[in-house]
Write a structure and sequence with these properties.
This protein is α+β, with helices and mostly antiparallel strands. The chain has one domain: Metal Binding Protein, Guanine Nucleotide Exchange Factor, Chain A (Beta Complex), CATH 2.170.150. It contains three helices and nine strands.
């Protein structure tokens, strides 16, 4: 069974749709981060769908992000606080329907937690500055790391190489 089939099957059963934070999650939302905003401030700052992904650990449907097909050179930043997370150099088509990268731009810009939302443990990763949920790390990526950072497109902003990175929120 290939990864694309598995991801699409999860989507069929509603797992790929927007999911609320579950009680069994050890998600990043409980930790303290350098950028602390209230829920009301985040709601004012972010559109509803981005708020659900970044602040409630939701997952967008597979294949729904325009960033999945983005092929230009540039930097992917956290859609919550603009912290640079990934370079286009490290992006690849994983066949899952979500933007995927084989390594972060700077290891210190990503934090991880264990996620038990699908019963079996997975490694969730989040923005180290604001705690915004990005996605999950899997061990089926390309060389040299063998990692797949499977990211929600809604959790990212793409900044083309010829544009200045936005200021941090």
């Amino acid at each position: 069974m290939n990864r694309r089939f598995f991801c699409n099957a999860l989507g069929f059963f509603g797992v790929g749709a927007t999911l609320p934070l579950t009680a069994c999650s050890a998600g990043a939302s409980k930790k303290k981060f350098p950028l602390q905003l209230s829920e009301a401030e985040w709601r004012k700052l972010l559109p509803y769908d981005r708020f659900q992904v970044l602040r409630n650990d939701a997952t967008e449907p597979s294949g729904s992000s325009a960033l999945n097909k983005e092929e230009n050179a540039g930097t992917y930043t956290c859609a919550g606080c603009n912290l640079p997370l990934f370079s286009s150099v490290n992006k690849y088509d994983s066949g899952t329907g979500w933007p995927s990268f084989w390594q972060p731009l700077h290891a210190d810009n990503i934090g991880t937690t264990k996620d038990f939302k699908l019963i079996l443990p997975r490694t969730e990763y989040h923005c180290a500055r604001c705690g915004g949920h990005q996605g999950h790390i899997f061990d089926d990526g390309p060389r040299p790391t063998g990692k797949r950072y499977c990211n929600n497109g809604l959790a990212l902003k793409f900044v083309p190489e010829d544009e200045a990175l936005p200021d941090l929120v």
